[in-house]
Write a structure and sequence with these properties.
This protein is 38% helix and 22% strand. By secondary structure, it is an alpha/beta fold.
Length: 196
């Protein structure tokens, strides 16, 4: 798993809208939420994520400036770590606020370093709940014509999500399946800015 390619090629792939001449020299304001499975099976992947998050702003900024001619990249990164809410109780979710990069890179790396791959259920984790939390993030928005916004969620796991039967009855405000979650995501978010 080469997460340098995930950050450089993966994030770029989410930018499906064609580049227009009017976008040249605009500022790109990107919110990136990383949903990370913290179960014990994910130790090597978690180490990769930690290593490749370092200087992510510089690498992404260089790529977007060079290929898409944006004048500046304003990048915010949020981490949502998850395990199994039935097996791990209070340690099921470890969530951060958004970190503004590069100014708050040290705080982001400190939060990442505090995460450990431990616990988790046998075969499935609380990934759906993590995605729900991610979609409800306090996303950036700008009315300025020279700023283009992107809201990106990336999901890292080697497990299936908990079934709705095991997860129990969901509140009406919470999606009970990935299909329902994606439908709400498309309804509530501007299709130009959202990427999952």
């Amino acid at each position: 798993l080469d997460l340098r390619r995930v950050f450089l090629n993966g994030v770029e792939k989410f930018d499906k809208a064609p580049q227009k001449q009017a976008d040249v020299n605009k500022t790109l304001a990107m919110d990136l939420v990383l949903c990370i499975d913290l179960s014990r099976r994910m130790k090597s992947a978690l180490d990769y994520i930690k290593d490749n998050t370092r200087s992510a702003h510089d690498r992404l900024s260089e790529r977007f400036k060079k290929k898409y001619h944006y004048s500046e990249l304003c990048l915010r990164v949020r981490i949502i770590g998850f395990r199994d809410k039935f097996s791990d109780g209070e340690s099921s979710f470890e969530c951060s606020e958004f970190f503004n990069l590069p100014d708050e890179e040290a705080a982001l790396l400190s939060f990442l370093d505090s995460l450990e791959a431990a616990g988790g259920g046998d075969t499935s984790e609380s990934g759906l709940e993590a995605l729900i939390l991610a979609t409800r993030s306090p996303w950036c928005d700008s009315p300025e014509p020279f700023v283009r916004t992107r809201h990106v969620i990336m999901f890292f796991s080697d497990s299936a999500v908990l079934s709705s039967e095991k997860a129990g009855a969901y509140p009406e405000s919470m999606s009970s399946s990935l299909k329902e979650l994606l439908a709400r995501w498309d309804e509530e978010m501007d299709p130009v800015t959202q990427r999952l």
